[in-house]
Amino acid sequence: MAMFFLFSLILVMDITVSGWRFGFDGLSMNYYMMNCPFAEGIIKDTVNRALLSDPTLAAGLIRMHFHDCFIEGCDGSVLLDSTKDNKAEKDSPANLSLRGYEIIDQAKEELEKQCPGVVSCADILAMAARDAVFFAGGPVYDIPKGRKDGRRSKIEDTINLPPPTLNSSELIRMFGKHGFTAQEMVALSGGHTLGVARCSSFKSRLSNFDTTNDVDPTLDRKFAKTLSKTCTAGDNAEQTFDSTRNSFDNDYYSALRRENGVLFSDQTLFASAATRGIVYGYAMNQAMFFLDFQQAMVKMGKKMAQILLHGTLHVTIFEVDRLHGDGGGGGGHFFRKMMENIEETVGFGKGTPKIYATIDLEKARVGRTRMIENEPNNPKWYESFHLYCAHMASNVIFTVKDDNPIGATLIGRAYVPVHELLEGEEVDRWVEILDKDKNPTSEGSKIHVKLQYFDVFRDCNWAHGIRSSKYPGVPYTFYAQRTGCRVSLYQDAHVPDKFIPKIPLSGGKNYEPHRCWEDVFDAIINAKHLIYITGWSVYTEIALIRDSRRQKSGGDVTLGELLKKKASEGIKVLMLVWDDRTSVGQLKKDGLMATHDEETEIYFQGTDVHCVLCPRNPDNGGSIIQDMQISTMFTHHQKIVVVDSDMPGGESQKRRIVSFVGGLDLCDGRYDTPFHSLFRTLDTAHHDDFHQPNFSGAAITKGGPREPWHDIHSRLEGPIAWDVLFNFEQRWKKQGGKNILLNLRELDDIIPPSPVMFPDDHETWNVQLFRSIDGGAAFGFPESPEEAARAGLVSGKDNIIDRSIQDAYINAIRRAKNFIYIENQYFLGSCFGWHCEDIKVEDIGALHLIPKELSLKIVSKIEAGERFTVYIVVPMWPEGIPESASVQAILDWQRRTMEMMYKDIIQALQAKGIEEDPRNYLTFFCLGNRETKKSGEYEPSEKPEPDSNYLKAQEARRFMIYVHTKMMIVDDEYIIVGSANINQRSMDGSRDSEIAMGAYQPYHLATSRTARGQIHGFRMALWYEHLGMLDNTFFHPETEECIMKVNQIADKYWDLYASENLEHDLPGHLLRYPIRIASEGDVTELPGTEFFPDTKARILGKGSISEAETLERERIENASLSQGVVKNC
């Protein structure tokens, strides 16, 4: 009963509190509705009275608001007076001409009479500027309120204001750093439709303009004479921006078309090809200008102060000097009373103070300390953080909270302005802790922090690739880089003979493919001491050998029988299979995700195989809600096999450790070849392994299409294989029960970790192991943050985390020189950079940096005048019913991720005056197949339901190839392969457990010439599989010729895939992802392509729900399928 009360209370809290929730900016349209309902009316009346007396003040208010926002954000700092110790912004030469201060003072005086201490000066200025626009004839619009007044105002900060001498490219770049598009910059410039400019700001255009022209050539000659005449009255002489000085209209843009722009920064908007079309549009359409202007003004009021932090931030949180014993009053009477009720009803007893601190870059949480118990007044952490950042931010925010069983209570926040970090100097100080209203706490609390920022461009590895074999690997990780290794790369579970054409490598060699499930079969058969397996799913009834032309002795045995046979021979067979733990007992046997976990456990009961169902247990210390969320929603997702193996050639009796790591589970639905047949293997390789979870009721008896499966895996030999073994041992000791692991030191024939390749062997590899895992799943993690940091781990609020997979991706992207090729089951993240007003990105929680790092890499190359291309292959949709709410939400997140990246790229192109298709820099693909019917095919005994997606796909003879890979190739010299998707649950470290390897061949680096080692051969083999051909341009993926060639082929293949008619098999599988990129980077539908073929599933997705809700919906929806899936499998 007590537990029921707890969950009921949590539900009520979620319903009632969510209406009060604000983002970190604390802004709301109705902010003053309850505490000062007449605020807007008072401000409007004050502004109207002043402007009736002097209409020219409208321009002054708008300009003052802009100057306020552009420096430290819209915080009213421009209103502050200088003191004897500080020169304020107001006294900067750039601000001496500002007018309208008295209007703000009058409004503040009236408001203080009605509701003292409530309305900030920053909000008064923002609303006054809005009302001035409307008074002058401009659009009416609302703005969010709730800004807090700033206390810092320094004259030196006004250097960030855009001077009137900037050209279009410089303006785009300057505004772009604050998150604005070129269109938004031009719209905001339209504020010059009001007011005047002084001669001192434009006289440089009238004589000695440059070495070639005396007068600015973009200036109309007749208008130049007008300006010269104005300047005869001196530097303070005034010139109106357009012919309607006090009217807010689009005449400003008409003036630019006539080359009558007063300032150089005005006329450049028309002179530049990058912005000329926008000027034309606004000159012709005043309504469009009004709409864009008001949207840009709202955005400026919320976002202006943010600066791009791209690099690494080193932070140390030392201590808080003093806090109030009951949590600093942050909870309030209501919360304290509610907690007393919970304690009494549920029986928690009196709560113990558990103080922790977090680090945020705006809405992105980037770090958190451990909890300090029983130190409510002076908590001391002394924790250091190594934080990768690619965020727009105005402050580094330190939040201090008191943990409790159902969440946390805010104590206060401290702010360190980002601009203080940009020069790279160390900042070590006590920072004042403010309450939720940004007022000092009653105790005057301060937090001691140290910060130092290292810009990415100061990194010696930035864009230089792996320059030599001395590259030490990714820093700050649990596992060091290993040398002298051997790596075998696998595409799909099997590759038929003679499928891969001749692919030349350096040294006169040709690429030779490997066969994953054949090699796994051989490794298990030949094991003498141990077979260790982890998997999201392991199914005992599958056969690993299915190619009739490559049969092996004993190859017809199932995996389950093979493992039992080896265990009966005395070999230690240990298995950790994810336990699909759920509280719904009736569904437990089958498992909501149909992973066969219970079935597999029962199969091995009473045998010598030790099979342990392994739930994703949380680390100690989380709240009740967090613990339940982790154990029921997240998974063990590592896919590894570790065996002992004989030495090459079989000449020695010694044995060594070999490991397999990647995306392939040993379960049903995974066996496939590069042909990815839909119908033609239903009576052979897939008759007893029919997998189609995207249609309700799909079955072999109803026929194809089956869901083809594309995956990538690897075999690791040498010291790196022992790291994989150690990972298994850590996990077994944590969750395997009795310690029955082999003590390999007692086995004389096992060679300890040592190189398997000579240093001068040109086929040697350097390899590093990465993980996403925490102390809830791995034994032996250190308990203290200091020890964790030394071990390359991350300290969390209640756990110790290995988050090195994300670190590996970030480091590889930052090193990249020419191109990146990605295949992944998911591609969504960096939600802190999404351009959206309809959702709260902090509720999505997809905070990892990978998408943003990719777009910033492309942007940096565009700015440097260099080529760089990114190819990304994803599935058409996440596995499952494509119309379902969860799949549609994920597609919506994917679309938002893509859009963020394309907006970054287009903004960079515009700044350079380049008109080019952004798909020449970043392009997305999916895989699909389409087969004509051939005689002798399997004939099903039943038919799918009429008018179902299943029947439509069957009749059209097409279906997507499911991309399950988790791989990235950089410059053909470095590769990451593993189990981790590009989403938050895989990259977080405290959610799904994951494993990956990063590897390169030191003799095959992209230094003086392009890399031509095994990674190059593997990519070319993949491209041959996907495109059905090879082309000379494919040797240089970074070139415009290559990306245009691949896009052209993929566009053609999509047209064939989506067409009504089918005359031949699809010549290749690589399809354009069916989206269109609009001029400003918005991702839209291809004309006439709202839905994926044969479905009613929107390609762009629909709606956005929280990650937790999505996961729950996945479980509920998939429970009704004959073959359920988890979206991260």
Automatic annotation (TrEMBL):
Domain Plant heme peroxidase family profile per the UniProt entry, residue ranges: 26-322
Gene Ontology biological process terms from the UniProt entry: hydrogen peroxide catabolic process; phospholipid catabolic process; response to oxidative stress
GO CC, one annotated term: plasma membrane
Cofactor binding notes: Binds 1 heme b (iron(II)-protoporphyrin IX) group per subunit.
PROSITE patterns given in the database record: C2, PEROXIDASE_1, PEROXIDASE_2, PEROXIDASE_4, PLD
Residues annotated for Ca(2+) 2 binding in this entry: T193, D242, T244, D249
TM ranges: none
Domain PLD phosphodiesterase per the UniProt entry, residue ranges: 632-670, 959-986
Catalytic activity: 2 a phenolic donor + H2O2 = 2 a phenolic radical donor + 2 H2O; a 1,2-diacyl-sn-glycero-3-phosphocholine + H2O = a 1,2-diacyl-sn-glycero-3-phosphate + choline + H(+)
Binding locations of Ca(2+) 1: D68, G73, D75, S77, E89
Gene3D superfamilies registered for this protein in UniProt: 1.10.520.10, C2 domain, Endonuclease Chain A, Peroxidase, domain 2
Residues annotated as domain C2: 294-431
PANTHER family: PHOSPHOLIPASE D, PHOSPHOLIPASE D ALPHA 1
Protein name: Phospholipase D alpha 1
Organism: Fraxinus pennsylvanica
